[in-house]
Design goal:
Layout lengths: L1 H11 L3 H4 L32 E8 L2 E12 L8 E10 L1 H4 L5 E9 L5 E10 L2 E10 L4 E6 L2 E6 L9 H7 L9 E8 L2 E17 L2 E11 L12 E6 L6 E7 L4 E6 L6
Antiparallel strand pairs: 1-2, 1-14, 2-3, 3-4, 4-5, 5-6, 6-7, 7-8, 9-10, 10-11, 11-12, 12-13, 13-14
Length: 267
């Protein structure tokens, strides 16, 4: 019974390490010690449709699910090229017997700035079913949040991210220096937050992808995340131009959740 309860709790954290990895400051606050400035678009890495990463997720060594992150095309918005960032996460057969999970997040972003136009989140966790539709009106500095048919309007800073677009903005930074602290504002659950990430160092990391140089970053969570994360998140990114997320680890009340990039999706 204890294992079942803890595994159900773990399922609720399955996807935040994949969805919300890291974040960066966009010049909304005064400079702080060891801060990393926002990257001019001309110096940035630009994402292309077709990128896809598949992760196996475990709780304290027990496989509990999988997640896929991908980039797809979409029509221009406000006469600007756009991308659709998609994360899909599901529990495996073992966990689904106790607590089935099938979540999908889509963030439609400006292809250049990576600022979100809209985020749609379908949450299916056990008997809990929620639907979120979040639309950003940057010129008016407002966000419209529709949760299960109920609409609210809130104030936001003009250059705020959602919990998925911030990862891609971070990945596009040309340099993540050891010892730096990185800050960013995101909108989550009808509130605006500042999130801190600390670049802890560079190490060799071995996994299904082989052995590569990886940047280790600690993300300090100021809130319970979209999937009820109970603690901070450590993320390992490839130490190259693409900064692909290799592995994520988040502690929960008992044990930890780990997401590991697979060389290719399982058949």
């Amino acid at each position: 019974m204890v294992t079942t309860v803890i595994t159900m709790r773990a399922s609720r954290t399955l996807f935040l390490p994949v969805l919300f990895l890291l974040s960066v400051v966009m010049g909304l606050y005064p400079p702080v010690a060891h801060s990393i400035p926002a990257t001019p678009p001309s110096a940035a890495f630009f994402f292309q449709p077709g990128e896809s990463f598949h992760y196996m997720i475990s709780w304290s060594g027990i496989p509990v699910g999988s997640a896929t992150m991908k980039i797809t095309t979409t029509t221009p918005i406000e006469r600007r090229p756009a991308l659709r960032l998609v994360t899909i996460a599901k529990s495996n057969k073992f966990l689904s017997k106790f607590f089935p999970v099938s979540n999908r997040v889509e963030s439609t972003v400006d292809a250049q700035s990576l600022l979100p136009f809209q985020m749609v989140f379908q949450r299916r966790e056990g008997k809990r079913h929620d639907d979120f539709d979040i639309t950003f009106y940057r010129q008016e500095k407002r966000v419209q949040v529709i949760k299960n048919g109920e609409t609210t309007i809130q104030d936001i800073p003009q250059d705020i991210h959602d919990a998925l677009s911030c990862l891609y903005y971070l990945r596009r930074q040309p340099s993540l220096e050891t010892g730096s602290s990185i800050f960013m504002q995101i909108h989550h659950n009808k509130k605006n937050y500042e999130v801190e990430a600390k670049v802890e160092g560079v190490e060799s990391l071995t996994g299904p992808w082989g052995t590569v140089s990886a940047i280790q970053v600690l993300v300090i969570m100021p809130f319970q995340g979209i999937f009820l994360n109970e603690g901070n998140i450590r993320v390992w990114l490839t130490n190259d131009r693409e900064h692909a997320p290799l592995m994520m680890n988040a502690k929960v009340i008992i044990g930890s959740i780990k997401a590991i990039l697979q060389k290719s999706p399982p058949s």
